[in-house]
Structures are given as structure tokens and as C-alpha cells.
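Fill in residues.
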């Protein structure tokens, strides 16, 4: 009889743990979705890992950011930024080509999965984000990621003021230098792995 009661307690504890995990995962996923809908990421991919190609990738990045900065100043939200980016794709490609030293350049705007990424003083959770992709050649090299709206690819001071473009509720999802929120982002990754494991 005692053994049966003990098993029931274990089963109840496991069910409670599963329920709590599902609730936490669902909440974290919805918060991440809300955050990702307010951001536009920038993804620049090099031809290869060769040192020269990596240097060209960074020059292309700088040229694209230089081209976009004045154009995105007028954007007050992600929807406006997307409209500007869509209207500027040819100009972005031309700007990238200027710095690509003859490498083929392709530029597109779409949805991409990103892992949790730590930047200078903040991090963003894993998730699906709207992404401006700049691919050099076959795009077989290491890549460079950041946020083009709000403009967080800038210096630490400029990025700090750009954080004001994210609502208070969303900015709580972005950790400060203490890394206090990184665990929350790991919850999102674990939640995604659990969903894949269960085939959801």
C-alpha cells in the first residue's frame, strides 16, 4: 500500500513538472514571437572562411549599414522599416556590390531561424526573425549577424539609445551585461528541442 502511494506521488510530481514546463515554454515562445516581430535582423554571409573573404564580408557589412542608416532613421516601427527595406533592395544590393570587389552579391528579405545570439551588452533569443540576407558568392563562409532595426549594429552608445525603439515589455527580454536573461532564452531553445522531440 505504501509503495502504491509513493508511486502516485512521483507520478503527480512528474505531471506537475510537465505542466509547468509546458506553461513556461508556451509563455516564453509567445514572448519571443512578440519580440521578434518588432525586429529586423541583418545576416551577411561570406564567400568562404578565407581571411580575405572574411575581410570583404566586413567591408560589405559596413557599406550596407552606411547605406541603410539614413534611410531607416524615419522608421518608427518594424513595419515601416520593412517597407523601406523592400523599396531599397536594389540599392542595398548595389551598395554591397560596391564593396564586394567583384564577388556576386544576392540580397533578399525573408524569415530566418536564428540561435540565441549575444552581442555587445545584450542578447536576443533564438527564434524566427525577419531577416535582410546579404550573400556573397556561394555563401559558404562564416556569417555576421546583427539587428538592422532598431539599429543595434552600431556603437554601444548608439545601440543603447536605439534600444528605446523596443517597447518596455520587450526590452525586458534582452539581458544587460550581467547576462541575467540569458537563461530565459535557453528556455526557448529547450522548448523548441522538446517540441521537435515530441513531433509538435
Amino acid at each position: 500500500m505504501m509503495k502504491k502511494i509513493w508511486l502516485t506521488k512521483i507520478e503527480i510530481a512528474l505531471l506537475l513538472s510537465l505542466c509547468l514546463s509546458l506553461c513556461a515554454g508556451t509563455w516564453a515562445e509567445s514572448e519571443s514571437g512578440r519580440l521578434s516581430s518588432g525586429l529586423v535582423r541583418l545576416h551577411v554571409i561570406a564567400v568562404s572562411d578565407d581571411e580575405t573573404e572574411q575581410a570583404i564580408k566586413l567591408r560589405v557589412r559596413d557599406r550596407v549599414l552606411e547605406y541603410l542608416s539614413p534611410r531607416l532613421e524615419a522608421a518608427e516601427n518594424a513595419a515601416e522599416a520593412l517597407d523601406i527595406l523592400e523599396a531599397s533592395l536594389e540599392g542595398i544590393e548595389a551598395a554591397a556590390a560596391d564593396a564586394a570587389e567583384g564577388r556576386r552579391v544576392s540580397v533578399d528579405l525573408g524569415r530566418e531561424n536564428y540561435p540565441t545570439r549575444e552581442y555587445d551588452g545584450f542578447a536576443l533569443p533564438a527564434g524566427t526573425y525577419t531577416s535582410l540576407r546579404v550573400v556573397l558568392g556561394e555563401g559558404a563562409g562564416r556569417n555576421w549577424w546583427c539587428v538592422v532595426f532598431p539599429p543595434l549594429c552600431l556603437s554601444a552608445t548608439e545601440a543603447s539609445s536605439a534600444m528605446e525603439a523596443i517597447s518596455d515589455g520587450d526590452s525586458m527580454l534582452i539581458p544587460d551585461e550581467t547576462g541575467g536573461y540569458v537563461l530565459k532564452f535557453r528556455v526557448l531553445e529547450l522548448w523548441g528541442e522538446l517540441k521537435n522531440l515530441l513531433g509538435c
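The CA atoms of residues 38 and 167 lie 9 Å apart.
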